[in-house]
Specification:
single chain, 474 residues, alpha+beta, Immunoglobulin-like, 5-stranded antiparallel β-sheet, 4-stranded antiparallel β-sheet, 15 helices, 41% helix, 22% strand, elongated
Length: 474
């Protein structure tokens, strides 16, 4: 249910009873028509977005060892990422990676605000592509407003059809590429073309096509305003020295229109000519002149728009710019501050630990379960035996033949065992018996170490500690 909050407006300052206007907090008050603009930050958005888009679209097509370079094989519970394969047992590494990404985001936010949102967030990149399609088919802002106000005619129908065709094409390519991270994309496209694709693949391609079309085509700024959790807690990470898009009100106020070359200072006016270009180019439909707002994604388009106007008026640039609150007040920004140090050191420490874990990761695991039945141990002659179940999981990308050895403070012997070859991803379970001369046991519970080693690569090994139970010593 939408919440409607009354705000007060007073058209005449002499009136004692102001008018009441209801503002819907959860719905856009109207469609946002974004003006096309060029400038440094618009170019930067393009140069940061295009490599990410190229990587997203091309990664499923690359092959490493005859498999996609990045494939999340959910049925087989395997994640192939470049030359590494991760299994459910590696879920801790995934948790580490997410924590590192979060702290890296915090560090960047403390330093330069929401630049992730403005330049590299998928929501921003895809919205930018859809807006490009609008500009191509319907023209710039004023032409689109005029076109939408017209009654349906042939020109409007053709332009709208062309725009929606481009939107659907972009959405379909996005969906195919995304599903290609979970199903080999070559076989996926072949199955779709021959109408032999599984129902699940067809469903997800259709789902993400519709989702992309709706999200980037219609929701747009509402995602940034109302759905994105980052917008809600970003203010906790901001401080007085965080670089963000700011309007220099000391220089810009009082606003007002004027002619180029006119002595506006004599009229008590500032540099802002109140052209509203900064609002017209904003993808989240805010006025940066009202101060720092949580909806602002720091895309810098208002900076480009304002600089363009300043150039036309022959005023100095920077009325709207990336700066800090301290710089606006005191003229300098303190980049070296405790919060930034703390986040940076945390990221460095976690990246180092994560890199060490990846570099020392052994692609084999072993689980040892001692028989806990009614007979904790067996006596055969002068030997005491324990029965164990050993489970070996070969997580390497090639088969290995494994040996099993046991060690401890006594002369333990392994029985009922033979070398076995495990294919990639194979899990093998086998029972074994471990015995030791009774006279060597000096206590009831003894510690043993069981080691699994690949015959063709001694570096591929794993150990597990268990206990050996014997009778009470006499």
């Amino acid at each position: 249910m939408s919440e409607r909050i009354p705000t007060l407006e007073c058209n005449d300052k002499s009136e004692s009873q102001p008018d009441v206007r209801y503002v819907n907090l959860y719905e856009s008050e109207g469609r946002v028509y974004i003006r096309k603009i060029s400038g440094f930050y618009q170019q930067l958005r393009r140069y940061t977005g295009l490599p990410l888009m190229a990587g997203f679209l091309l990664m499923p097509w690359f092959l490493i060892d005859n498999r996609p370079a990045m494939l999340f094989d959910l049925p087989a519970r395997k994640f192939h990422i470049l030359w590494l394969t991760f299994w459910p047992q590696d879920s801790m590494l995934l948790a580490w990676l997410l924590i590192i990404a979060a702290f890296l985001l915090f560090t960047v936010t403390v330093l330069v605000g929401r630049v992730w949102c403005g330049f590299t967030c998928p929501q921003t990149v895809w919205t930018h592509m859809f807006v490009w399609a609008e500009h191509l088919c319907e023209g710039d802002r004023n032409k689109r407003i005029k076109l939408d106000r017209q009654a349906m005619n042939l020109n409007k129908f053709l332009r709208k059809s062309a725009k929606h065709s481009l939107w659907i094409s972009i959405s379909f390519i996005t969906a195919i590429s995304f599903v290609g991270y979970f199903t080999p994309i070559r076989s996926l496209i072949g199955d779709l073309l021959t109408f032999s694709a599984p129902a699940t693949s067809v469903f997800w391609v259709a789902f993400f096509t519709v989702g992309t079309f709706t999200n980037a085509g219609y929701l747009r700024e509402q995602v940034c305003k109302y759905m994105c959790p980052y917008a809600r807690f970003q203010s906790v990470m901001y401080d007085q020295d965080t670089l963000a898009v700011h309007y220099d009100k000391h220089r810009g106020e009082t606003r007002g229109s004027r002619k180029p070359g006119e002595d506006y200072s004599a009229k008590g006016l500032g540099d802002c000519i109140d052209c509203s270009w900064c609002v017209q180019v904003c993808p989240v439909d805010i006025d940066i002149r009202d101060g720092l707002q949580y909806e602002c994604i720091n895309c810098g388009l208002c900076v480009d728009a304002c600089n363009t106007v300043m150039d036309k008026m022959q005023y100095p640039r920077g009325l709207i710019r990336f700066t800090s609150e301290d710089d606006l007040e005191s003229g300098k920004t303190n980049f070296l501050r405790p919060r930034l140090y703390a986040y940076s050191l945390a990221v460095i420490a976690m990246v180092s630990a994560f890199s060490y874990s990846i570099s020392t990761r052994v692609p084999v695991t072993v689980d040892v379960i001692r028989d806990r039945g009614a007979r904790l141990y067996r006596v055969q002659g002068d030997q005491i035996q324990n029965v164990y179940t050993i489970k070996i999981n070969n997580m390497d990308r090639k088969p290995h033949k494994y040996d099993i050895s046991v060690s401890g403070e006594h002369d333990y012997q392994l029985k009922g065992y033979r070398s076995m070859e495990l294919e990639e991803g194979e899990v093998f379970t086998m029972p074994v018996r471990i015995s030791v001369p009774r006279k060597q046991l000096s206590k009831t519970k003894n510690e043993i170490i069981i080691k699994i080693t690949a015959k063709d690569d001694l570096a591929v090994s794993a150990t597990e500690t268990s206990s050996f139970i014997g009778p009470k010593p006499k």
